[in-house]
Write a structure and sequence with these properties.
The protein has 153 residues and is α/β, with parallel strands linked by helices. It is 46% helix and 18% strand. The protein has six helices and six strands. It has a six-stranded mixed sheet, sandwiched between helices. A hairpin with an 8-residue loop joins strand 1 and strand 2. The chain is globular and about 40 Å long. The relative contact order is 0.16.
């Protein structure tokens, strides 16, 4: 029931905002929300936040991170998913060919540590929620993300 309500909400959101919000095309019980350029060489993955206020704060923080890296949504691809969607993530990942995967959050990092992605640099750092809750993590996140500057240049 909850999955159908969430899926209907996301479909309505996509209808309102156009293709900036893309639902996964595979049949899963859990949505994977995608934003940005699917042809990008940089893939960010974060956990889905089911709270509008937190989502807005996350979006603002993520935009600042992109700006600091001299990036924008048209230069990256962002996937947000529910914790339970990890097994379904592989289906969405098959059509994306990034050089770098940036994982925001430890629960998602665990999934990637158990899978092999040859030739793809994987960078794992704190989740956006962790950073919002503890601003001292910002310096660690910046240090984790600096290698992206070398890879994209």
């Amino acid at each position: 029931m909850k999955n159908n309500l969430l899926k209907n909400y996301l479909i309505q959101t996509q209808q309102l905002f156009g293709n900036n919000l893309i639902l996964s095309t595979n049949e899963t019980n859990f949505p994977i929300i995608e934003e940005g350029n699917p042809n990008s060489k940089i893939l960010f993955i974060k956990e889905f936040v089911d709270d509008e206020i937190l989502y807005k704060k996350e979006k603002k923080l993520f935009s600042k991170i992109l700006k600091a890296l001299n990036l924008s949504y048209d230069k990256i691809f962002l996937m947000s998913h529910l914790k339970d969607a990890k097994n379904n993530f592989s289906n969405s990942f098959k059509r994306i060919k990034p050089l770098v995967i940036v994982i925001l959050g430890s629960s998602i990092s665990e999934f990637f540590c158990s899978n092999n992605y040859k030739g793809i640099k994987i960078i794992s750092t704190y989740s956006l929620i962790d950073i919002l809750n503890n601003s001292t993590y910002k310096k660690y996140v910046w240090n984790d993300l600096k290698p992206i500057l070398d890879i994209i240049n």
